[in-house]
Design brief:
about 425 residues, single chain, 6 strands, alpha/beta, 2 domains, about 10% strand, about 55% helix
C-alpha cells in the first residue's frame, strides 16, 4: 500500500516546508474534494502532508488509483534545473518505483502558479556535447517531445537524484544501479504519469474558486448563500484536523464527509423553512398559578382518586422526557404554544358550562375534549409547518403538562 512508500527515507519531501505552501495544500485538497462532489465521484479520499503535499485516492475500481501532487507557490519562473522541479521529480520517482513493485496505479501532478523559463547551460549541461533546444526543456517535456527533451533532462535528474541520496543512503550503489538501469522507454513510461500544471491559480484565486464551488453546491442543495463562508470555514477546519492524525487512513478525508456537511445544512434549511414562528410567543406566557396538577385537581374535586392522580402524573413525566429528547427546541416551543392556545380557549367554555360540578368523570371528559381540540389544531398546523409531535398520546401528555406547569387550571387560585 502507498502508506508504506518512502517509510524508511530520511529525505525531506518539503511537504511542510513553509506556511504559504501549507495554505496552498489545504486549498488544493479542498478543491479536489469539491470537484469530486460536483462530478458525483463517491469513492474519492484526499489528504495533505502525507507522502506528498497532496494525495488523492480513488477506490471505485478493483485497483486503487492514487494521485500525488506537489504544490509550489512562487513568484519566480521554473526551469528544469530549478531545485523545486528536480526535488519534485525525485519524490515522484521514488514513489513510482515502490508503486510499480506493489502493482498499484498512480499518477503525479506538479501544480504551480508560476511559469516556465528558458534553460541555461549550467551544471551537468555544460558537460553534454549537445546544443540546448531553443524552447524550454519543460515545455518540450509537457508536449511529450521526449526525443528532444530527455537527452538533457535525464542527466540533470540523475545527478540531482544521486546527490540527494548520497546524503542519507547507507548504500548509494543501489540507487545508482537502479537509475542507470532505466531504459529510454522506461523514462517515457515514468514521465507519462506526470501532469504539469503551470500558470495555475494562486492561493487567493483558489479561495475565490472554492467559495464559488461551495456557493454552487449550496444552490444545488437549497442552502441559503449566507452559509457559504461558514461552510468554507468548517471544511478548512476539518482538513486541518485530519493532518494531525498519524494513521494513513485517518488522515484521509472522504468526499462523503464533505457532502454530509452540505446535507446537514440542507436539512437544517428545510427545518427552518417549515418552522412555526409562533415558538417566539411560548416564553412570553405569564404563569402566576404555582399549583401543580395534583393541587389543581383536588381543589375542584377533593375526592379525586389518588391512584388516578398518580397515573396522570406518570403520563406528564413521560411527556416531559420525550420533549427534552427532541432535537429542535423551537419546534417543541411552537407545538406547546399551539396546544396551550387550543386548551386555553376551550377550558374557559367548559368551566362556564359545568360551573362547580367537577366530578372525576367530568374531569376525565374535559381532558379528552381538550386533547381532541388540541389534536385537530396541531394536525391542521402540520399542513403548513413541521410540528414536533402529532400523535394523540403525546398531545394528551402535553395537556397534562399544561396543568402541571401552571398554564391552565379548572379554577382561579384562591
Amino acid at each position: 500500500m502507498i502508506g508504506n512508500v518512502i517509510k524508511d527515507e530520511k529525505i525531506n519531501t518539503d511537504a511542510n516546508s513553509n506556511i504559504k505552501g501549507i495554505g496552498l495544500q489545504k486549498l488544493r485538497v479542498f478543491d479536489r474534494l469539491l470537484e469530486a462532489i460536483l462530478k458525483n465521484k463517491r469513492s474519492i479520499m484526499c489528504a495533505m502532508e502525507y507522502i506528498d503535499d497532496v494525495i488523492e485516492m480513488d477506490i471505485s475500481e478493483e485497483k486503487t488509483a492514487y494521485t500525488t501532487e506537489q504544490n509550489k507557490s512562487y513568484s519566480s519562473s521554473f526551469s528544469m534545473n530549478s531545485h523545486e522541479v528536480k526535488n519534485s521529480l525525485r519524490i515522484f520517482f521514488d514513489t513510482w518505483r515502490v508503486i510499480v513493485e506493489s502493482a498499484e496505479s498512480i499518477n503525479f501532478v506538479f501544480y504551480t502558479n508560476t511559469t516556465i523559463k528558458q534553460e541555461y547551460k549550467t551544471g551537468v549541461l555544460k558537460e553534454l556535447d549537445l546544443e540546448l533546444p531553443e524552447e524550454p526543456l519543460l515545455k518540450l517535456l509537457i508536449e511529450k517531445r521526449y526525443s528532444e527533451s530527455l537527452p538533457f533532462i535525464i542527466p540533470i535528474f540523475r545527478e540531482y537524484y544521486i546527490d540527494q541520496h548520497k546524503k542519507h543512503a547507507k548504500d548509494i550503489d543501489i540507487y545508482i544501479e537502479m537509475i542507470d538501469s532505466m531504459t529510454f522507454e522506461k523514462w517515457i513510461e515514468f514521465f507519462e504519469l506526470i501532469e504539469w500544471k503551470f500558470g495555475e491559480k494562486t492561493e487567493i484565486e483558489l479561495i475565490a474558486s472554492v467559495n464559488e464551488k461551495v456557493s454552487m453546491l449550496c444552490h444545488i442543495h437549497g442552502i441559503d448563500q449566507k452559509f457559504v463562508a461558514k461552510i468554507v470555514e468548517q471544511i478548512i477546519g476539518k482538513i486541518e484536523l485530519h493532518t494531525f492524525e498519524k494513521d494513513f487512513l485517518r488522515k484521509m478525508i472522504q468526499v462523503g464527509d464533505i457532502k454530509c456537511i452540505f446535507l446537514e445544512y440542507a436539512l437544517e434549511a428545510k427545518v427552518q423553512d417549515k418552522l412555526d414562528p409562533i415558538h417566539e410567543k411560548w416564553d412570553d406566557i405569564e404563569c402566576s398559578d404555582i399549583r401543580d396538577l395534583k393541587d389543581k385537581f383536588l381543589d375542584v374535586c377533593p375526592e379525586y382518586n389518588e391512584d388516578l392522580l398518580y397515573d396522570l402524573q406518570d403520563e406528564y413525566t413521560d411527556g416531559v422526557f420525550e420533549q427534552r429528547h427532541h432535537t429542535n427546541l423551537k419546534q417543541v416551543k411552537a407545538y406547546n404554544y399551539r396546544v396551550y392556545k387550543a386548551c386555553e380557549k376551550l377550558i374557559k367554555r367548559k368551566i362556564a358550562e359545568i360551573g362547580e360540578d367537577f366530578s372525576p368523570k367530568r374531569i376525565a371528559e374535559i381532558i379528552d375534549v381538550l386533547t381532541d381540540e388540541a389534536e385537530v389544531h396541531v394536525n391542521d398546523k402540520a399542513k403548513t409547518y413541521q410540528v414536533a409531535f402529532s400523535d394523540r398520546d403525546m398531545i394528551r401528555k402535553t395537556v397534562l403538562m399544561l396543568f402541571q406547569d401552571c398554564y391552565i387550571a379548572f379554577n382561579e387560585r384562591e
